[in-house]
Amino acid sequence: MKGDFDGIIDMTGTGSVKWELTQKVFGEESLTPMWVADMDFRGPQAVIDALKRRAELGVYGYTFRPAHLNEAVAGWMERRHGWRVDQEWICFSPGVVTALNACVQVYTEPGDRVIIQPPVYPPFFKSVQDHGREPVMNPLKLVDGKYEMDFEDLAAKAETSRAKMLLLCNPHNPVGRVWTRGELEKLAAICERFGLIVVADEIHADLALNPHRHTPLLVAAPQLAGRTIVCMAPSKTFNMAGLAMSFVLIPDPEQRKAFQTFMEKAHLTAINPFSLTAADAAYRHGDEWLDRVLAYIKGNAEYLRDFLTRRIPRLSMVMPEGTYMAWIDCRPLGLAPDELKAFMVSKAKVALNEGKGFGEEGAGFMRMNLAAPRSVLEEALAKIEAAVNAL
Question: Does any domain span residue 50?
Answer without folding.
Answer: no
